[in-house]
Amino acid sequence: xxxxxxxxxxxxxxxxxxxxxxxxxxxxxxxxxxxxxxxxxxxxxxxxxxxxxxxxxxxxxxxxxxxxxxxxxxxxxxxxxxxxxxxxxxxxxxxxxxxxxxxxxxxxxxxxxxxxxxxxxxxxxxxxxxxxxxxxxxxxxxxxxxxxxxxxxxxxxxxxxxxxxxxxxxxxxxxxxxxxxxxxxxxxxxxxxxxxxxxxxxxxxxxxxxxxxxxxxxxxxxxxxxxxxxxxxxxxxxxxxxxxxxxxxxxxxxxxxxxxxxxxxxxxxxxxxxxxxxxxxxxxxxxxxxxxxxxxxxxxxxxxxxxxxxxxxxxxxxxxxxxxxxxxxxxxxxxxxxxxxxxxxxxxxxxxxxxxxxxxxxxxxx
Length: 366
Hints:
The chain is of the alpha+beta class. The protein is 18% helix and 34% strand.
């Protein structure tokens, strides 16, 4: 089982991380590996080979019941009943103001069964919100008994075919199979957060160490921490909950309207319709810095001498050789090609609003 400390929870792989010399730090209420050999080295390995991530801190819920009658169909910004068995879907759990309580993925395990995968820091609240909106069925928090390992990179498929067999080879993007590994059932999903070909493996927590060590015995696989994962996701322009999106942000403001269906009666839909009708006060933008300098969360965004917004994520992009970031500005200025200045105290850097993704050479859909 997962152990706990006063400050942070520990994943079942904590001992392995420490033995490998990982630099650890709190993240979402958990002590997590930030890096092993170095963030840039691990980033490059994921872009070129296959990187293994410990994602056991994420939350998982199992729901069994009548999807429509029990209220699950209108729980998120998509209809759960529209997901075929064997597929998964990304979307949002919203509050009454249209703010994002969490971004999550739902896996349709059977006609009457789904698994919901949530962010770590929001997991407890997500469970309570979902539970309060159900009319029936059975909702179980299986986070404590479920481990999650992500294998990401252009060689991930080859590694898993050698390890699990040819059934992995034909798995399409955002689909999953239920497999058996070392005698236990696992869910193998072709999803990820890096922009590269990747897989997420859900398995019983007591088998996580064994699978971690087996995968790392392959010379094509190396461990990677959350530092590399953040660079990888930001180069794709993926939003990070708690930084780029939160309960004060709507999917419209975040530029994520493609994950919202304006049907049904999900909580927050009316607020989104009103916002759509009256217009946005801010909108998420992407930008490139004209140097190698790194913008940081909370830095101000200016157009000329007008403060128009704030940076929510930023990093140095190894692929582009320059700083990149995400932020929110007045829609008036949210036009690709607009010159902006990023400022914080005495720090100032010139940048330009651009389109996403920053990096388009990934193997995500290979």
